[in-house]
Amino acid sequence: MNKLFELRAKLPPWQSTVLGVLGLLFIIVLWWALAEYFSFTKTIDPDRLELLDGEAPPQSEEKVYPILPTPMMVVRSFPDLLVKDDLKGNVLHSIWLNIRGYFWAVVISIPLGFLIGLIPLFRGMFSKPVDALRYLPLTALTGLFIIWFGIEDEMKIAFLAFGILVYLLPVVVQRIDEVQDVYLKTVFTLGATSWQTVKSVYLPSVLSKLIDDIRVLTAISWTYIIIAELLNRQGGIGALIYLKARQGQIPKVFALLIVIVLIGFLQDRLFVYLDKRLFPFKYYKTTLTALREIRVGLLILFAIMAVAILLQIYLPEFSSTLSMSIWTVALAAVALMLFGEFKIRSSTTESA
Fold it and tell me: The domain that contains 108 carries what CATH number?
């Protein structure tokens, strides 16, 4: 019990679970109480009353929630979103936009960041302009992106990629500066070349920290996706939120916000998993078996993602033709990863 108020004390797993459930219940009860507090009862317009056998129905008043809907109202709005508003299709559209934006941001920012961070010529020329990019008001640039890319998905992807890049590029340079000198002196003593130093020291050190930075940026990326989808409102969860807010369907707006939070939580867990499997030295003191199978599966999935993105840009007529083959290879990669996870669990159980 004393640990509950001890500074930075670590709670047992069961206590963390119980407190997490209690915290969620507290938020729901507080939400419900605030919704009821701001609600009011109003008289129904007589023209809306339906007569039953020539008499008005017994209830001529209704309760209105103008600011906050109750949790049950939000829950009841999900079936309507799924059936009438194509929630699944809009969510998948936004996720695919997010993936493509992240792809181009990472592909551009990591090589450029290494050039600026490692080569003094490029650092002297571009380090200050790169740092200044973070102060650009991205929402004010939407007009320029419409002029350059139109109002279709290409504009949204470019806007998202640029929004991530202006934050990720300086971070790459910063992570390069944070590489400890002791590792550099060690490989220099061993006679490593510049390329071997980059491969054996800079890449593992920078990427192991950069995955945490990318994980944090996933939350910001959803803000940019919503902004981009508001411009033409032709699909995506951002456009759906805008339409439902304009129509005064507040429970559906809250339901969509909850969907975004859930997606963000799943993305966060996915990055935690990738971090543990790609950089296990951060979490484990011993070498894990079967990491090769998992890494090969992840490499195949990353390659499939890159191929699908490039095909959709340069060969859109073949993207639908190859979709079945791509899905087959992706399922095989997932099966290989599951096999690796099974081997890890088996070895852990045996050692225990």
Answer: 1.10.3720.10
